[in-house]
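request received
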Amino acid sequence: MDAIESLIPDDSGATPSLEPIAMVALDAGRMLMEAGASANGIDEIVAKFARGLGAERVDLRIGYASLAITIGIGPNGITRMREVGHLGVNQRLDQELWHLAERVSRKEFSTEQTRAELARLATKTPRHSAWVMAVAVGLACAAFGRLLKVDWPGTGPVFIAACLGQLVRREMLTRHVNVFICATMVSFLSSLLGGLGARWMGSTTVTTAMIASILLLVPGVPSVNAQSDILEGHPTLGSARAVTVVVILIFVAAGLWLGQVLLANWH
Amino acid sequence: MTLAFLLHQTVCGAIAAAGFGVLFNIGFRSLPWCAVSGALALAVRTYCLDGLGWNLEAASFGAALIVGAAVQVLRARTDISQNALDVVGCIPMVPGSFAAKAILGMFALTSTNTLDASETLITAVQFTLRVTFTVGAIGTGLAIPTLLLRVRVTR
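response:
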């Protein structure tokens, strides 16, 4: 057999079809990325899925908005790409995906079963209710406020402003409002409410209370992921994440600035 | 540094980390681990800042390093996947207020009636540098134990 002949794909049906394996592995990687994982985690999980479903060679390229995979079995190989959606944080989905990856890597699932399981996880993974999340975020921002030396009269308003900000943010994201616009609007609302409340309660740390009220918007996970991606050999993705973090911070600061201007002129 | 202050910072770190754990959709069963992670981060940072006299960047690096190492050791017990626990623990140390002050300082510079432009510029640059170095210190502190202790996947 000459060199050209050895490159012709084997369609005898003896090996598993590459297309479904590639797409299922990409789907798992996409879901993990949208759940807030760093590049190394995505790389690892895609390899687990692809190898568990029968691939012998796996190469992945991770971009900010897309994933591309090349998998191979014997002399056959294909390359496929998948778009990635909004990058949020969902640790329960992340955890479920890792559990599934372990089972797939032990070859407990076929490709179709894995696809069905991924679809189930995407729709059935539970989320905390909007009210639980709002109260938790309010408490977190109030604790942040105390760490930033907000006095006790200013802490209550920070809690309420952050609760309301989180409720509004969730509602806006459900309606697919642009994340940057959403950041500015929530920042404006929360900082204004926090500042007004702190002033009304007689706090001496009104400006810090306004800042504490918007700390729910600080993109902590993306900023840590950006750096770990660069350190772990994914500078392109890391740089893209870092730019997004900076732009979000600018939009958040714009909302805070508007809130401060309005509060300064509020009599 | 008094014990009451250390306790206050530790409890606030725990509440902030657990609150953000809920925002990140971590299950209720795992939330106490988030609180422990945040409490450890703030306790170490406060001790380094006020007990040892380190600056914020060095203290944040030390705290992130210890949280990262502790999470690597405890990972098998917690059942929280990958880097969620150490990131959640370090979220209360992310200097969001410095970032806001830095950008507001930049906004103030563009105003036509800035009273003391050079002082405003220096303050804004100082905040920007502190944010950059502190976030860098946290990321590096978290990455070192992960890179040293993780078993790499065979490709």
